[in-house]
């Protein structure tokens, strides 16, 4: 019960900051509109003046609706990117404010601080998804298949993976005092390997093998098959289960890394160093 109170207290603090400083709201509205444009325009050019390239695209991707195909990939990427960035730099922000040491002196489990911060990040992430779908539907005139529960299930199985990566990034903050390089590296790999704007089957075999390391590859594939191709949730159960298993593996790795780094910081007394 005490742990739940701690998590909720940290979450309430973060929610107060988010609602008080609203500089993130313009980005919430603009980014979902702007981000997919470059990929959609590239697809229009590659399709050719007679749209002949769409036949090849359909053979590979299973659909000619390239705008929705790209939009779903971009939407998942923005959701993953937002959560990884905010969650992974959460402790760094506390360090810059001068409050990290005070939090660390509290007689609580330090992992609960991260979990509390994750609650707000999850809320912001799903807000991005909601805004994206509204804008894509009304401005880009896209239509999505499936229902809300099916969409929610697909995104929920990716959350442990995002939190696992976030724990690793948070550990880097405690150890190296910064995680920006690691976050930039992972978000770049996700963009390249997970098929954000193209089917992963067009990549070389060794890159396809690397893409299977990320749970988001399976999540994006499942989301496209349900939201774009109109398949039921039962047809993507294998992708969902695999995504969940890989996500849980990253969650376990993240937890172990955080415990080891937390112990190292205590032994060296290096928490106050910038």
TrEMBL record:
Task: Indicate the segments forming the ABC transmembrane type-2 domain, all copies.
Answer: 27-261
User: Could you give a GO molecular-function term held by this entry?
Assistant: ABC-type transporter activity
State the coiled-coil residue ranges: none
How does this chain sit within the bilayer?
Answer: Multi-pass membrane protein
- Record field: transmembrane: 28-48, 68-91, 111-131, 151-176, 188-207, 236-261
User: Transmembrane: present as a keyword of the record?
Assistant: yes
Key words of the record: Cell membrane, Membrane, Transmembrane, Transmembrane helix, Transport
GO cellular component, as recorded: ATP-binding cassette (ABC) transporter complex
Q: Which compartments does it reside in?
A: Cell membrane; Membrane
Q: Which family does it belong to?
A: Belongs to the ABC-2 integral membrane protein family.
Q: What is the name listed in the Swiss-Prot or TrEMBL entry for this protein?
A: Transport permease protein
């Amino acid at each position: 019960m005490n742990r739940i109170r701690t998590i909720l207290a940290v979450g309430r603090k973060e929610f107060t900051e988010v609602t008080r400083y609203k500089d993130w709201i313009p980005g919430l509205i603009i980014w979902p509109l702007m981000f997919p444009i470059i990929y959609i325009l590239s697809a229009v050019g590659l399709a050719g003046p007679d749209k002949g390239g769409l036949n090849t695209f359909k053979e590979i991707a299973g659909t000619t609706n390239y705008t929705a195909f790209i939009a779903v990939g971009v939407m998942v990427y923005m959701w993953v990117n937002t959560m990884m960035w905010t969650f992974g730099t959460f402790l760094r922000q506390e360090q810059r404010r001068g409050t990290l040491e005070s939090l660390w002196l509290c007689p609580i489990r330090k992992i609960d601080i991260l979990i509390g911060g994750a609650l707000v990040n999850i809320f912001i992430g799903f807000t991005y998804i909601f805004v994206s779908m509204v804008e894509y539907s009304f401005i880009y005139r896209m239509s999505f298949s499936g229902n809300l529960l099916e969409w929610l299930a697909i995104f929920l199985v990716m959350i442990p993976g995002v939190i696992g990566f976030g724990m690793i990034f948070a550990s880097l903050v405690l150890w190296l005092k910064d995680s920006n390089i690691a976050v930039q590296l992972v978000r770049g790999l996700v963009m390249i390997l997970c098929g954000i704007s193209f089917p992963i089957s067009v990549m070389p075999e060794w890159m396809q093998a690397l893409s299977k390391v990320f749970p988001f590859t399976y999540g994006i594939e499942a989301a496209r098959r349900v939201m774009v191709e109109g398949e039921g949730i039962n047809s993507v159960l294998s992708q969902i289960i695999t995504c969940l298993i890989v996500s849980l593996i990253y969650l376990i790795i993240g937890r172990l890394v955080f415990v080891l780094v937390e112990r190292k910081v205590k032994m060296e007394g290096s928490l106050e160093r910038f």
